[in-house]
# Entry
Amino acid sequence: MKIALLGAECTGKSTLAQSLTQRLRQDGKPVTLVPEYLRQWCAQHGRTPLAHEQAGIAQAQSDGIAQASPSDWLLCDTTPLMTAVYSHIYFSDDTLLAQALHAQGQFDLTLLCAPDLPWQADGILRDGPALQARTDTLLRQMLSQHGLAYRVVTGQGPQRLENALAAVAASMGGVA
# Structure
């Protein structure tokens, strides 16, 4: 099972990725978690990326997914599609979209984290509720326009995890 977590800033992707990985492992699933490369990049460079750095970030996220240890379960805390969406929003650059959308189609399940959590500042990584809403809208449009199915994950705290687990179970015909 290859699962992608997508969502705008401050929608709990990384927290959900950790919780979901832990819970699936507790249930006996051999899960490999691929973390969000953009977060690592920003921490390393102390800033957000420039337009010419976006392709490298998308490629590094893609490489991390491709190089993940083989297991029955792969959980990705974002995919190159998030970088492509941010390139569109920040730089009016759509050159990463085709490849990112193609890569997104390789996932068995895409979980889209809803922007229903309280927005919180996080240094250089967060731009505000207005960008969060715009990113969420654009993600939904892109996924829908390209026939990529997704399930929206809502709720706070343990309920968000339970809703994600329910989406996983539903995608597997009721067995997770």
